[in-house]
């Protein structure tokens, strides 16, 4: 029986605090190793009962996203319907506030929110593990976005393990207004850190512990992305000059970068400063949430 009440789901921004790339596998994907966290900003989706599957787009970045059949939102709805053996019927409205193709999992977070939202709308009885099994058929970053909790991510993204006791540290996200192709970034990869190189037993519950750990890691995709889009280097240089910034790095395959700060006031001051000097950039103060 289908609920007659609309359902809402939040799709928070996903940030790769580090991203190590291993060798290419036989299936064409690279093994990955990453610590993934989520912010308190993101997209919003609403789901209503309908006799067909439709997608309506609105929000700041809606015009950069198409509602074609290969949209991750529609793919996720169809994948879930296939898994449970029912028609893919719902009216979905996506309020797109995260930049498109920006390295912070906007599309993947939206797809994961579809799985959560339609599970409620269709009144399904599915576990997180079952939803992650559907998620891995949609995209590499979708499984870690299903629960949207701080996690270690491995394999091509399908192996997700909860990362407990991370601090709720302040963070600034910056995108220079460009989209970077993930495929192009991987093609430009000339060196890599490799996987199975970090210890998960280190204490990371305090900001200083997390920062110290992250300084021993890297984002292997940052260098090739920066060669494709030099604006990424400009962003990182600007972030390095912000008072209170403890660490700055690119997320995912870019072009969004982040900086971790010692306190929320410093983060908000940096947001104001960069928004004034670069009004064409997307600049958002946020924080890591559990």
Structural notes for this entry:
With 290 residues, the chain is an alpha+beta fold. The chain has two domains: 7-162, 2-Layer Sandwich (Ribosomal Protein S5, domain 2), CATH 3.30.230.10; 170-289, GHMP kinase, C-terminal domain (Alpha-Beta Plaits), CATH 3.30.70. It has nine helices and ten strands. It has helices at residues 72-84, 106-121, 128-135, 142-147, 182-187, 207-214, 222-228, 231-240, 264-277, and strands at 7-24, 30-48, 53-58, 90-95, 151-155, 159-162, 170-175, 245-250, 257-261, 282-289. Strands 1, 2, 3, 4, 5, 6, 7, 8, 9 and 10 form a ten-stranded mixed sheet that branches.
Largest sheet: 10 strands, mixed
Query: Per DSSP, what share of the residues sits in E-state strands of 2 or more residues?
Result: 25-35%
- Oligomeric state as shown: single chain
Identify low-pLDDT runs: none
- What is the helix tally? 9
Global shape: globular
Mean pLDDT: 92
SSE succession: EEEHEHHHEEEHHHHEEHE
Instruction: Give the CATH level 1 class of the largest domain.
Output: Alpha Beta
Show the helix and strand layout.
Blueprint: E1 7-24, E2 30-48, E3 53-58, H1 72-84, E4 90-95, H2 106-121, H3 128-135, H4 142-147, E5 151-155, E6 159-162, E7 170-175, H5 182-187, H6 207-214, H7 222-228, H8 231-240, E8 245-250, E9 257-261, H9 264-277, E10 282-289
Parallel strand pairs: 3-4
Antiparallel strand pairs: 1-2, 2-4, 2-5, 2-10, 5-6, 7-9, 7-10, 8-9
Helix pairs in contact: 1-2
